[in-house]
């Protein structure tokens, strides 16, 4: 057992029942995968809230946002011969994948990092062609007083990475789709390196290659190039099926410490665990060390059972001296918290 | 029959037997998918030359380039239970795709656009981690006296888009991987639009979305953003399975004319045809018109039969007044040429 996460005793700290739906009649199914940040002496979370219409026996339904901001629905009978249902997250009709829920972002605030008050209304919803199927899993990086949100923008054209900025968490500036499909898990570094902004991202496709972690650089945060693969999946290990960056890399004396998720295909589905990568301070495309064993894995009941079980997945953290306050999605359902020691993680990378 | 391509009577104009292998012992299997350009009063082609070792009965083999520039080989028995062989282009071992050939670029020169002399040696070969499995299908765009090559860089990490520049076709400058996997078919516009460079590209993945044509912009050709989907596949039509840009869009009074390829899945495999897109001059993300029927399809014997039959695929053209001299790969084997009238294509887009 290598799990080094000291879970909050109050876990899960936010559940779907804590969330007011974004519109009358909608059901909140998941409140998870939060981005995290510090603002005004508080810890803020940008929760991913997944919603659907009330379930109808024998039917599956997907929702999308129209150009004028309305929600529209498509319903199919489960016994329709065109319909296949791989798992709770999606169904397929005539080869086209549909999501069973649509996600928006909701802010939650805390003085102590453990007890959060969730706002009543969305802070950001899908609002363009590239977000017609919602927004998901944002990472928040603060650079010189501005917060940057890198998030999954989901649409009928695929899922890519959107970028928005804010200074006050009220007004947001859209900076465009910075990575086209099929890409997600983008984590921006908190400072320029060698005069350029730097980011981790995770393209996916078929054939040669796989869902690996890549790096890119930018002069202006909007345009990205110099793509370079820094870590691949490892056959036979806990991160054999897919990997992806967590949130902004943590600057330590020994290098940039990046907590990442890795998934393995098991008989019941994917199992998501967390591990660490240590990247060179001057050239973060160089991997100094990588976890052999996971630093955290789904063991608590709220991590094992849920909308999609056996998942710990983090895209949000706040650093306090040696402590990482890790906010994470459990079982694709709940928001949880845990404390990890940076020293302990770094030591584990030396063995 | 909507095919409006007047094929060269000498087609195929270049075949594998015209090509000297890049190293002793290698066999040239394909000489196809050329980029095209004008230089020094000549027409130049950047041929994609695919090579392999001599076939051994009962075995499949893939080649790759090591970091020090040597070619290494992996051989598997066809009856190995781990091996599956979807078609002539690739085989799969334990879920990992291997290519049966490795490609480099070779220059060919012509005074009349129809009779070409092929150089004896490669002009560019895979030469970095991102090209360990070769370089393929370059588009050439001339901007202010510099030629830019956007090409598919193939490696174990997937296929992305590499960029190199040259002014003399002898010395080349590498400008990095401009699009990470899984991306190809990148065609750069020949001038800035609203102060930015503009490009078409084709990401591929699984799930929601598909192999569609996207646009992006750049301040410096190296870093790209503002990704935007401009055309999707069309169910039930000749371009239902995948689409991708040809070479640099042609500036006409009515808009940017882009000749693109579309594939359809038929019982024997994919069939690749060519069509046209007309894009707004000031905002090329706006599609003014798109071919209902293909403007060219595989009909000649050299297009129907070959390494991978039923393919016409162009990534190179030279414009002379109203004529497009279209250079194209036929059946993934040969280089061919055809003449199309810009007026006739534009008229076909009005009906």
Automatic annotation (TrEMBL), chains A, B:
Gene3D superfamilies: Glycosyl hydrolase domain, family 43 (2.115.10.20). It holds the Pfam family Glyco_hydro_130. GO terms for molecular function: glycosyltransferase activity. SUPFAM superfamilies: Arabinanase/levansucrase/invertase. Keywords: Glycosyltransferase, Transferase. This is Unannotated protein.
